[in-house]
Amino acid sequence: MAQDSRQDIRKRIHERIRRKVAGSPERPRLAIFRSLNHIYAQVIDDGQGHTIAAAASTEKDLRGKGGNVAGAKLIGKLVAERAKEKGITRVVFDRGGYLYHGRVKALADAAREAGLEF
Predict the structure, then answer these.
(1) What's the pTM value of the predicted model, to 2 decimals?
(2) Low-confidence stretches of the chain (pLDDT beneath 70)
(3) Which has the closest alpha carbon to 78: 92, 65, 94?
(4) Alpha-carbon gap, residue 79 to 75, rounded angstroms
(5) Domain holding 98: CATH number?
């Protein structure tokens, strides 16, 4: 029996989380994706399948700042500000199958400090 890769395990965990967590127009989903060098965050209304607000470390003015905890804090603050501009203050957090630790926790804490409730 072949052993599952780390990515397969994360995808399985993410599917389990997504069965329980869904974004609505009143309370959209704050979904994150973490790669080796970057971090991405989106506020998504799953009912319509639309992204309301997003921020990523690949944006022109943020390049080179996403592979660490400080970069994740920056992205968390930025996505929260963009969501608040669209009138969103409450979200559900989707950690994307990653452990709530390090960059994931830093992004979540920064988004909370910037005014998002979850």
Answers:
(1) 0.92
(2) 1
(3) 65
(4) 6
(5) 3.30.420.100
